Amino acid sequence: MSPLPYRPNVGAVLFNQAGLVLIARRADMPNAEGHAGGWQLPQGGVDEGEDLRVAVLRELAEEIGTNKAEIIAEHPEWLTYDFPPELQRMRMAQRYRGQRQRWFALRFTGVDGDIKLDADPHPEFDAWRWARIEELPGLAVSFKRGIYEELVRAFGPLAR
Hints:
Elements: E1 6-15, E2 21-26, E3 39-40, E4 43-45, H1 52-64, E5 69-74, E6 79-82, E7 98-108, E8 125-131, H2 136-139, H3 145-155
Parallel strand pairs: 1-7
Antiparallel strand pairs: 1-4, 2-3, 2-8, 5-7, 6-7
GO molecular function, one term: bis(5'-adenosyl)-pentaphosphatase activity
Protein name: RNA pyrophosphohydrolase
Domain Nudix hydrolase: 5-153
């Protein structure tokens, strides 16, 4: 068990009007079309003292180029995952054992054209699409799969 702390993090399950969820392909995995782990939900770190609801909208703006969304639900618990051994050389893994996440369900209030992955000079994602929430666990890397299964259970009813 690592003595390192978990990095505080927020995640977004962004639903469109049809009840589909936005997933995005990591820019560092462009050939991951059919592979688990290449696609994920927007998520990111929380600044010291930052309100979690503010943080999730900020992360959406940074990662997908828009924060045109309204929060419709918050998962009641912090969910955690540890970084696997193959990521231990990653700079963040040298400071944190993994991530401690608070997840939010949001309703997208914009149009698809509002999503601009290149809004950041160093985009995290290079493609995005709408998916059924039930697809999430199959898209996740193994160390995040349990969290995505929990998100399907907790937020799945919102897709209807």
